[in-house]
Amino acid sequence: MRDTTELDGTLIEGLARLAVRVGLNLQPEQELVMTAPTSALPLARAIAEEAYRAGAKLVTPILSDGEMTRARFAHGHDAGFDAAPGWLYDGMGAAYGAGAARLALVGEDPFLLSDQDSTRVGRANKANAAAYRPALAHISEFRINWSIIACPTAAWAARIFPDLPEAEALAKLAASIARTARLDHADPVAAWAEHNAALARRSAMLNEARFDALHFRGAGTDLRVGLADGHLWQGGASPAKNGVICNPNIPTEEVFTTPHAAKVEGVVRATKPLSHHGTLIEEIEMRFEGGRAVSATASRGQDVLSQMVGTDEGAARLGEVALVPHSSPVSQCGHLFYNTLFDENAASHIAMGQCYASCLEGSDLTPEEIAARGGNKSLIHVDWMIGDGRTDVDGLRDGADPVPLMRAGEWVV
After folding, report:
1. 8 Å CB contact between 223 and 269
2. Which residues pair with 225 in a beta bridge?
3. By CB neighbour count within 10 A (0-12 exposed, 13-18 middle, 19+ buried), where does 387 fall?
């Protein structure tokens, strides 16, 4: 297969500039820790160059490789699937604690491990999540500027467009990524500033409204999501606790907040498949009582779904709720990306597992204070899509009439 070296250099340069200047807003003399699959090396190199131009003190790349990952599952000893490189994650956590920024490049084959033992995949993911948790706290609590951006790769493109010739598939994925990253604008950085301002206005409106809950209604969905006490809505660029304003996700179309882990009731049905650790989970349906998913079914990928919600106590509760218009650029691409960075920005969604403490009023909240507000704790954070062109959303306040927020998947306020 061709690799990303055959992509248009203008696209690579544009993505690198966005990653450093918009996604991270990397500061002079700041270090950068960057993870990337080897298939995304051209973009990783361009980002390193752009970062040094921006004054980075040091860029440390950490690379993964699909073939090496598959070798582990094909030939590794069983006990090894409960192991994780804690020493590596300790080092990453130390770097974040010392002020380094964090960038993740995605672009690997979304179904790399789809033919491997799902139990082993689940065990390995759980071990990694547990080992990475202390370092991840710097991100989930928004202590540092961080971001995620994608690189089109041949293996990923082949999964999305299996009926197209290799070069055509890669070009089509590259065009979709360029569109969703707003690289089709004359000045992408200015376009992102305008988009961020719009998301900030939407977040401010929701924060002023102080809703107690959201009510989702759609095909097969009738779900009430209680919101955490002192919740805050965020979207687009936000200031991290280190004072740097960054865009954690490129692309992003959502405004999101923290639900109350004990106040979710009703039935919800997925509107798009979920690609999770190499398995496509289709037609998810969950029923919530007292905040917990008491049933979780899927027409495909049931074993993986069951493993996911059974990871720990918090895995069957919500850690995020997000509103996304059906007309978003990601949705308008007209295809799944099989990557949550994109697919979550095509539709309103919820996430099982860990909450974002940054979506709660107050700074440096203790785990006990987060839990008291209704924030959830888990090793996982998995988004899945529940919105489409048939979805209505109301804001609820005790003793007041419902306030229409979305009708047929579009904002009405």
Report:
1. no
2. 214, 264
3. buried
Provide the residue type at 298 as one letter. Answer: A
Residue 239, CB-side half-sphere exposure with 13 Å CA sphere? 4
C-alpha torsion sign, points 195, 196, 201, 207: positive
Query: If DSSP codes are grouped into helix, strand and coil, which group holds residue 84?
Result: coil
Rounded to whole angstroms, the Cα distance separating 248 from 367 reads: 23
Q: Give the relative orientation of helices 166-180 and 9-17 as an angle to the nearest 10 degrees.
A: 30
**Number of Cβ atoms within 10 Å of the Cβ of 410:** 11
Neighbour tally for 265: CB within 10 Å: 15
Distance CA 56, CA 226 (A): 42
The one-letter amino acid at 89: Y
Q: What is d(CA 188, CA 14) in angstroms, rounded to the nearest whole number?
A: 8
Cis peptide preceding 259, ω within 30 of 0? no
Q: At what angle do helices 302-309 and 118-140 cross, to 10 degrees?
A: 40
pLDDT at 399: 87
Q: What is the pLDDT of residue 265?
A: 98
Tokens, residue 279 = 């398995």
pLDDT at 291: 98
| C-alpha to C-alpha distances, 325 to 182, 256, 338, nearest whole angstrom | 17, 12, 19
Instruction: Give every residue of the chain whose pLDDT is below 50, as ranges.
Output: 1-5
Give the C-alpha separation, 287 to 278, whole Å: 25
Q: What is the pLDDT of residue 244?
A: 98
How many CA within 13 A on the CB side of residue 218?
27
To which residue do tokens 């500039």 refer? Answer: 17
Torsional sign, CA 369, 371, 372, 375: positive
C-alpha span between 412 and 210 (Å, rounded): 17
Segments in 7-147 forming alpha helices (H) = 9-17, 41-53, 66-75, 86-97, 118-140
Q: Output the six-digit token pair for 403.
A: 């306030």
Radius of gyration of the chain (CA): 20
Distances (CA, A) of 29 to 56, 59, 198, 338, 353: 5, 11, 31, 36, 35
For residue 152 the two structure tokens come to 């089109």
